[in-house]
Amino acid sequence: MWSHLVLSPTIIPIATPFVFATAPSFPSAPLAVTSTLPKEMGRWETVVLAYKTLGVVFGGLVTSPLYVYPSMPLKTPTEQDYLGIYSIMFWTLTLIGVVKYTCIALKADDQGEGGTFALYSLLCRNMNIGLLSSKQAQTNSSLSHSALLGSTENKSRLRIFFERSIVARRVLLFIAMLGTCMLIGDGILTPAISVLSAMDGIRAPFPSVSKSLVEALSAGVLVVLFLLQKFGTSRVSFMFSPIMGAWTLCTPLVGIYSIIQHYPSIFKALSPHYIFHFFWRNGKEGWLLLGGTVLCITGSEALFADLGHFNRSSIQIAFLLTIYPSLVLTYAGQTAYLIKNPTDHDDGFYKFIPTTIYWPIFIISTLAAVVASQSLISATFSVIKQSVVLDYFPKIKVVHTSSNKEGEVYSPEVNYILMVLCVAVILIFGDGKDIGNAFGVVVSLVMLITTILLTLVMIMIWRTPPWLVAIYFFIFFTMEGVYASAVLSKIPEGGWIPFAISFILAFIMFGWFYGRQKKMEYELTHKIDLERLGMLLSEPGIQRVPGLCFFYTNIQDGLTPILGHYIKNMRSLHTVTIFTTLRYLLVPKVAAHERIVVNRLGLEGVYGCVIQYGYADSLNLEGDGFVNQVTDSLQVYIQNCPDSLTSDHEEVQEEISAFEEAKLAGVVHIRGKTRFYIGNNCGWFDRSMLAFYEFLHSNCRSALPALGVPLSQRIEVGMLYEA
């Protein structure tokens, strides 16, 4: 731990405007990075990656036949009802799965990441919204569409509206947060319903097996799955992909057999007129059945959110060539069986399996349900990691399990919280229909939010022709809106579960965002510029004490207010002080000669240093090694870049000698530890939100990596920011 040096607080009122300013980088040395990004994959590598996606991305989607029909409140269904239901499922899979996600959404990546929060990040990067943290605003989008952006005259009216309206930007942020929280809720419900539905198949041949035993077995399977997550997505997917390959092959074969045996003309239901006849006959009852039908597209959001774990081509190949045909044939086979056996819908999957292959299919389905859980677990890790990087979620431990894929991550804290919640859902809400009702709420709302954000991307970034945007929005917003209206009626019957989870997560995200924004406002308002630093050092009684000091700051255009607080109270500054900033870059590794960027700040003995690192870089540089790297870089810089302070060779040597003397006198690393001072003049909203932020901040990980700094050299300077 850092030794704690708390100084008497300097309290200055914080700025009140609700804006999140961004600023140019500091120090001003060039920060271009030529680190090598992963090369384009060859065809064979893409095919292998597509095979791996079966074990991670599509588990939730391809195993949906386990619980779709059992989740429908069917009473006395007729042949025409089943034909209408199959037609609805076919067109849902085709329009939402193929057109929306595979052909459109996968192109809207943000630095290779997918999901609702990645869409929000993409909009922030390409618009002057001002709600994205400055360190992220600096990076460029990976979309080629961004090249279409021009001057203010070429901006769309909608984009200008968002850039000028703080209310619109807040609403957009809330929508993105809600979508993110709903997807995390999906990561809790998918494992619960998938494994529970698969394990329930054991009760058909053994009626004496109790429901409680099935729930306990399901919980045990999930615990094992979560314990495997620490090995990384690649290892898990390579192990799970053969299981999903077997499932994806077996279920459509059983479906084809069922079609031939029971109803060979099932594919006449592909005509949309069966949908209209279905709603015409059933009215409100048909509308309520959509709450179960929507589950056929379960896991489609994971297809988009897991993009960072793989790539666009591999996901498209796997979905179009294997997953989509498998689902169409499996649902056709199930429906064909139910047309001839209309009362078996409560166990619509296992009843349509031929007796001779029941146990092999049961084993495959159970294993496939475990894999289905993996897809949403991986997606949850991805969206949490995005939120942490963008500073919208408290700092947690994020482990990169691959040196080649930036999006392949694992978080121990998130993993074990998910495990506890999944087991709790199974043990408390053991009825598959209640979990299905909750599941439907999550699926429909996440799809609806993705449609809204994609529409904004089309209008403001891609500059898609208005008539195409209108067609896209009308089809998908109408379709998903009808689904959402049906599932919202299920809130009292288990649908409240995802709302409770999402509300808690959204409150955490907003509380953290609000506190970080207030802190940034304060620091940008009261930052120390070089002129102010010079005045502080020239005050009577201020001494330059021997030693080398690394003063950590995250201000990008100036120096942290903690510096002024430190100098006023300690009445000193080290003879050589290096203001150090850590910068995370969206590349695997930063080249050794570009990792440390240094420059002079115009005052004697005062320098700036930016340490750049990629997601696969290790920052544990060990204390002496880190100090030597920085001082060596500074010495090279001083020798090659003389300025007015060191105009000749002799002065350059004196400056280098001063460096060596400072190192010998002792090295110290100083960082700030700030808290809000919540005075009586604070309103109730600020008081409650900042108190909640302080609670989160005191219980999360430090944003500053350890860097291997010896304990004896660490100092924390406490300071209060007045709210």
Please render the helix and strand layout as text.
Elements: E1 3-6, H1 43-53, H2 59-62, H3 79-104, H4 116-126, H5 134-137, H6 157-164, H7 166-199, H8 211-227, H9 233-262, H10 273-282, H11 284-293, H12 300-305, H13 312-340, H14 358-389, E2 399-400, E3 409-410, H15 412-428, H16 432-462, H17 466-488, H18 496-525, H19 530-538, E4 543-552, H20 561-570, E5 572-584, H21 592-595, E6 596-600, E7 606-613, H22 623-640, H23 649-665, E8 667-677, H24 684-698, E9 714-722
Parallel strand pairs: 1-9, 4-5, 4-8, 5-7, 8-9
Antiparallel strand pairs: 2-3, 6-7
Considering the chains and any ligands shown, give keywords for the structure.
single chain, 723 residues, alpha/beta, two-stranded antiparallel sheet, 9 strands, disordered N terminus
Query: Cα-atom Rg, whole angstroms?
Result: 29 Å
Helicity range: 55-70%
Unreliable residue stretches: 1-39, 131-153
Helical element count?
24
Function: Potassium transporter.
Protein name: Potassium transporter
Keywords: Ion transport, Membrane, Potassium, Potassium transport, Transmembrane, Transmembrane helix, Transport
Domain K+ potassium transporter C-terminal: 546-721
